[in-house]
Amino acid sequence: MVLGCATVGEPPSTLPVRNAMVFDQLVIHSNFSLPQQHRLVDDLCLLRGDLMTTLDMQPSDEPIHVYLFESEDHFQDFLSRQHPEFPARRAFFVESDTRLTVYAQWGDRVAEDLRHEVSHGYLHSVVRGIPLWIDEGLAEYFEVPRSDGGLNRPHIRLLLTRWMDHQWRPDLPRLERLSSAGEMAQEDYAEAWLWTHWLLEASPQHRKLLQGYLQTLARYGSAEPLSSTVQTVESNADEALLHHLSQLAAVLTAQREAK
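Given the sequence above, the corresponding structure tokens read:
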């Protein structure tokens, strides 16, 4: 899913603002009514705790404004007027100097879309200057349902196919050089997710490496590229990542056979 984020000015006034509800950090705006106990809203609130616990960080109280468009036509009209440079998509996250904002169209995949984009909001509220690949990798990790534990099945299948066809190999320094979502192909999102999943799930030492990197960014605003310190936990990170991919593919096979 190619979504991503952008940095622009303040949002226009032609937005769904008839209703506004506050849930922890989230300020959800819409022109239709949402019940206080909507399962999607509950899921997004739980996501905040999941993400901060996983990264060992304290949450921010900076508001994240979420604008929900009731129809695809309304959303695409807004997108074409305000962001004509963006490809057609269902949701996106925007960071300005003073505001964190998510825009999304209500539809069959709104839960996945909002988990992805709101993850960007939670991350940007505590870490400034987060590298694009980590930003997207974490959003792809947390966009899947909580019960999946970060396992993004389409990414596993895509990378496994590309690897078997000798059309892809991991290259973290290349990912680190990407600076805008427009530069990222679907394969890049998948690889960013895989590096993130490996760092979070391979071992406690791997997870602490990512946690420490993000905490350094949050504290000082900059840090050495993560690729330069990955060697401290893995001497051959590329091969370790491919082994991790093979293990995840085996998990998918076992799940299919168990059904």
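Strands lie at 5-6, 19-23, 26-30, 64-69, 91-95, 100-105. Try to locate this feature in the token string yourself.
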